[in-house]
Amino acid sequence: MAFLHDEGELLVLDNAFSGRDVEVGLFDNSTDALAEGDGYSAISTEPDGADYAVQSVTGPTVTQDAGTTSVEMGALSYNVSDATSSVNYVFVRDTTSGDLIFTNELDQSYDLGSIDTLDLSNVGMELD
Question: 12: closest CA among 60, 62, 61?
């Protein structure tokens, strides 16, 4: 079995995200139940409001601390004032190709019918 060591994690993620434009959106994985081989087309539960839009991020930040390599999208804010659905995951896809890069669980499920703005600050992924 091969292992991707700390420097390898940093090299791979830095090369994958350096200068890349990505879109970050919301969805309900309780319903969609994405599998590893699924693409963006498998997501059917993005918020239903007309005010909702995916957020664009240019060159997500890649860092390494104590053996954990992280990709961070920064602070994101979503207008969900006219949405009625619930979300519990984010997706990150390549802006140019539309390819799904990764998904990640939010800290909780959010009922968008009860809030106008969803602010997120820790969107990303980690490799240990």
Answer: 62
Tokens at residue 49, please? 């409001």
Q: Return the amino acid letter for 93.
A: R
For 51, the token pair is 């005010």
Residue tagged 């959106």 (tokens): 25
Nearest to 115 by CA among 61, 89, 77, 70: 77
| Distance from C-alpha of 54 to C-alpha of 69, rounded to nearest angstrom | 25
In sequence order, the β-bridge partners of residue 103 are: 91
Claim: this prediction has a pTM higher than 0.90:
yes
8-52 residue pLDDT tens: 999 999 999 988 999 999 999 999 999 999 999 999 999 998 999
**String of b and e for 55-80 (b: at least 16 CB within 10 Å)?**
bebeebebebeeeebbbbbeebebeb
The neighbouring-strand residues paired with 124 are 72
